[in-house]
């Protein structure tokens, strides 16, 4: 197939674009050309790079037509954050594709209730990002149901890979938490450390996207969670990482109001966002419908990324 990946040089694209090219697809990556993929791969040399600034093209109403002109069989959209943005693209692509793949987020569910959360659990997003992504999902599934554009929505958890900081056991992204655990230092966690996070390796996200593209008829009109097999509590995550570093876990638990004073405002905001959602999602639908089989557990994904950050001296052991 000819596949266009909008935003194909970031976390997901670094793994997805080479995977699709190696599978024999003709891949075009649309981006502003400002950043490079996180890892080199000879497969990048076989791809076409199309420089477009989505924001600027949308403002002039030309983004949809420019993507349509690439004459793809499938379009993977990794950079859509508003229903207006989705609508412009969808209207241009109607009747031209075998599959439109939108990257959603498990944040569309809002806070967890009965876990693991299934796709059919009523979605009650609690943040603007989640509300917009839900509106995009509804728009796309309606397009698909009415036969105008076959579309699937894939919802990743916290994406982990080599080259960037994984979400840490305190629920934010600063790598010092891993350094503290590696040195056997005391780490503060909010509340009882029982709130959850749900990671996924970027290559497992890529595997699921590739599987959906391979099965356009099964995928169209559906949405699927794309996470590791099981979520982690912050406490379990911190203990397992300390053990991996060969150290005892020295954890101290503080009520939220006290804990947030121990970190920067930005870190507190990230942690609050993660513990307020406390995601724990089921992958049974993707396993059954897309043959999704994640290679990495949450811990394996994080440990691979941490190993890479140790080698680059971002994390000090
Ligand atoms: N990261 C996570 O943990 C996570 C979790 C759940 C869901 N998601 C979803 O994943 C998607 C993002 O994927 P990602 O994390 O792989 O993205 P990313 O790492 O942020 O990469 C963004 C990509 O889009 C391109 N881009 C950014 N602005 C652009 C513009 N105005 N016009 C054209 N291209 C543009 C970037 O290249 P240039 O800068 O060169 O243009 C890059 O290729 C989003 O839909 C998000 O909701 C992410």
Note down, in words, how this protein is organized:
It is a single chain. This protein has 317 residues and is of the alpha/beta class. The chain has 2 domains: 186 residues, Rossmann fold, CATH 3.40.50.720; 99 residues. The chain is 40% helix and 17% strand. The protein contains 13 helices and 13 strands. A 7-stranded parallel β-sheet has the order 3-2-1-4-5-6-11, sandwiched between helices. A two-stranded parallel sheet has the order 7-10. A two-stranded parallel sheet has the order 8-13. Strand 5, helix 5 and strand 6 form a beta-alpha-beta unit. Helix 1 packs across helix 7 and helix 4 runs parallel beside helix 5. The chain is globular and about 60 Å long. The chain starts with a strand and ends in a 6-residue tail after the last helix. The model has no long low-confidence stretch (mean pLDDT 98). The site of NADP nicotinamide-adenine-dinucleotide phosphate (NAP) has 23 residues, from helix 1, helix 2 and strand 7.
CATH topology of the largest domain: Rossmann fold
Percent in strands: 15-25%
CATH architecture of the largest domain: 3-Layer(aba) Sandwich
Indicate the overall shape. globular
Oligomerization status of the protein chains: single chain
Mean pLDDT level: 98
Order of helices and strands: EHEEHHEHEHEEHEEEHHEEHEHHHH
Write down how many β-strands occur, each being a DSSP E stretch of 2 or more residues.
13
Q: Radius of gyration, rounded?
A: 20 Å
The portion of residues assigned to helices is 25-40%
Q: What is the topological layout?
A:
Elements: E1 2-6, H1 11-22, E2 26-31, E3 48-51, H2 54-59, H3 63-68, E4 74-77, H4 83-93, E5 99-103, H5 128-145, E6 151-156, E7 158-160, H6 176-182, E8 186-190, E9 196-197, E10 199-201, H7 202-214, H8 216-219, E11 223-226, E12 232-233, H9 234-244, E13 250-254, H10 256-259, H11 265-277, H12 284-290, H13 298-311
Parallel strand pairs: 1-2, 1-4, 2-3, 4-5, 5-6, 6-11, 7-10, 8-13
Antiparallel strand pairs: 9-12
Bound molecules: NADP nicotinamide-adenine-dinucleotide phosphate.
Residues 7-13, 31-35, 52-55, 78-79, 103, 105, 156, 158-159 line the site of NADP nicotinamide-adenine-dinucleotide phosphate.
